[in-house]
Amino acid sequence: MQLGFLAAVALITPSYALLRFGCSQLVVQRTDPLVNPGMAPSPHVHQIIGGNSFNITMDPKKDMPASSTCTTCQFAENFSNYWTAILYFKARNGTYKRVPQIPNSGFEAAKGGMTVYYIEDSRQQAVKTTAFKPGFRMIIGNPTFTTRAEAQRYRQLTYTCLKNINTRSPETLEFPDKPCPAGIMVNLRFPTCWDGVNLDSPDHMAHMSYPESGTFESGGPCPASHPVRTAQLFFEVIFDTKPFNDPKLWPEDGSQPFVWSFGDTLGYGNHGDYMFGWKGDALQRVLDSKCYVNCPILKTQSFADMNKCSQKAVVDEDIEGWLPALPGRSMEREFRARGN
Ligand SMILES: *[C@@H]1O[C@H](CO)[C@@H](O)[C@H](O)[C@H]1NC(C)=O
Ligand SMILES: *[C@@H]1O[C@H](CO)[C@@H](O)[C@H](O)[C@H]1NC(C)=O
Ligand SMILES: CC(=O)N[C@H]1CO[C@H](CO)[C@@H](O)[C@@H]1O
């Protein structure tokens, strides 16, 4: 969705809620309190955004928002955490370099990070959109996936090859196979049907479901097992691949040179994590008030204040230099297409 498009429709005041806000990077390191609680380093590098109470262990029974003192997101004082893996460029000589991140159009002054959306279904107005509850968390995607068929199980985890910062299509399930003039945007849309009971589940996914038929966008109904309709959580993450676009830097075998921090050179292991941190019923009130892009009931902070909020990495290792192997991985464990 383009900012120009949003700005144009904002004038006609739609009757559904859509929050869109930029978040700077909080910390980039090998931790993952959902999949590997207590582990530092965890198996692969993540970039984390949001409230600064983020920690290697996060007890859902504790009120995490209350212990944050700042957030890297534009809407101040609401302290959810959001994270994804990061991308590396693999040089012909076998070394890896972290691909820098750039903010979205409209959020140019933010420090890397990502754009976060909470989108209410625009078609089924008769069905109430329920906000996530304190203690709620979820994951979408699976870093062990190596085939297209596997990737298709989690719809809507995609890549956009940016011709310019506003390019929004086409979306592909695998990494773009040609240099992208303005970078690669990673799109992560989370499922929108909740079982209404569990704030989490052993795989961090089973308490959520995609619509029974169709998609969220087409107004597909939620299945009986997961009857509660939530807002669609959606991340856009832009990796600045421009410094690596010279064909002379690309692999001689014609493959593309980018690799996720967990060793995936195809893109099928794309995944994202969410830990709800809105205070009390703040998100429900936002949805009920049909806030559209701008949300006067929320306090907005400046880019300078967002950028100021950061955390010192607890894992002390080089993730930025030209590295002989991906942090936490040996080169042998990097995987390529099965049967390719
Ligand atoms: C993380 O948790 C540890 C142990 O409870 C605590 O000492 C530390 O202050 C926490 N860090 C942050 C940023 O809250
Ligand atoms: C490997 O290649 C990169 C990119 O061409 C270069 O910057 C780096 O210095 C090289 N490293 C070694 C050890 O040759
Ligand atoms: C800490 C906190 O909850 N901050 C704000 C989050 O957003 C709501 C708006 O819905 C505010 O009322 C809170 O003060």
Automatic annotation (TrEMBL):
Superkingdom, taxonomy of origin: Eukaryota
Keyword Signal in annotation: yes
Protein name, as recorded: DUF1996 domain-containing protein
InterPro entries: DUF1996
Coiled-coil ranges per UniProt: none
Signal peptide: 1-17
Keywords: Signal
Domain DUF1996 stretches: 32-278
